[in-house]
Amino acid sequence: MKSFSLTGKVAIVTGSTRGIGRSIAEHLSAAGAKVVISSRKAPACDEVAQSLRAAGGEAAAIPANIGDKAQLENLVVETRRIFGRIDVLVCNAASNPYYGPMAQLPDDAFQKILSNNIVSNHWLCNLVLPEMAERKDGSIIIVSSIGGLKGTSALGAYAISKAADMQLARNLAVEWGKQNIRINCIAPGLVRTDFARALWENPKVLTHYESLTPLGRIGEPDDIGGIAVFLASRAGAFVTGQTIVADGGVTIAS
């Protein structure tokens, strides 16, 4: 369908070598976008980029550590060198080095979570927004989490960072809306990824979560990729500053 086509568009997806990020990259590519695969490790980036090319898409691998501003600057410069422009930015990469109560949260772990999950997104957005403003067209998607919508006894710092990402999207949507740039969040629930393995591999936790979820299951990475296509394409042209929750209904039922 034409309204979901991304033909001619160039997209950067951070954290796109596995899980939700890879699903988003694959869906954007299938919709016609040229996709830049980025994560810390070059071999993993190369593997996914090659996979997209083998499926008929155009893709490039540009490794970057989201905690290093210079590497993010290089990611943007190299994307422009290879593909000439940036139309879509997906800030998916994140970290969560701590599981437990806030009272025992080490300062360095808290700082890393805030830096990687909020500040790096702020850096990347500001690196691509001026170019999008010149064309008066662009879409930025931040992958947040339903953790940012409610309290938690074990993932407090992570949840704080994800709530902040939602506000970052709202702020930027207000600031850049007149330039026809749309900034939105996707807030997944529990998805079967390596990032969330400690939760879904625990049979007790998994069974409990499924019992609370109206759809009766946890998410799969491919449940998320299509949402990014919607937000990046003409189909989502009147959507900005929003958080689209994709959680099987758990937040409305529990």
Write a structural description.
The protein has a single domain, classed as 3-Layer(aba) Sandwich (Rossmann fold). Helix content is about 45%, strand content about 15%. It has helices spanning about 20-30, 40-55, 70-85, 105-135, 155-175, 195-200, 205-210, 220-230, 250-254; strands spanning about 10-15, 35-40, 60, 90, 140-145, 180-190, 245. It has a seven-stranded parallel β-sheet with strand order 3-2-1-4-5-6-7, with helices on both faces. Helix 1 (about 20-30) packs across helix 8. The longest helix has 29 residues, at about 105-135. The model has no long low-confidence stretch (mean pLDDT about 95).
What is the structure about, briefly put?
The chain has 254 residues and is of the alpha/beta class. Helix content is 47%, strand content 14%. The model has no long low-confidence stretch (mean pLDDT 95).
What's the total number of strands?
A: 7
Q: Quick one: biggest sheet?
A: 7 strands, parallel
| CATH architecture grouping | 3-Layer(aba) Sandwich
Are there runs of 5+ residues with pLDDT below 50, and where?
Answer: none
Quote the distance from N terminus to C terminus: 36 Å
Number of helices: 9
Number of domains: 1
Strand order of the largest sheet: 3-2-1-4-5-6-7
CATH class: Alpha Beta
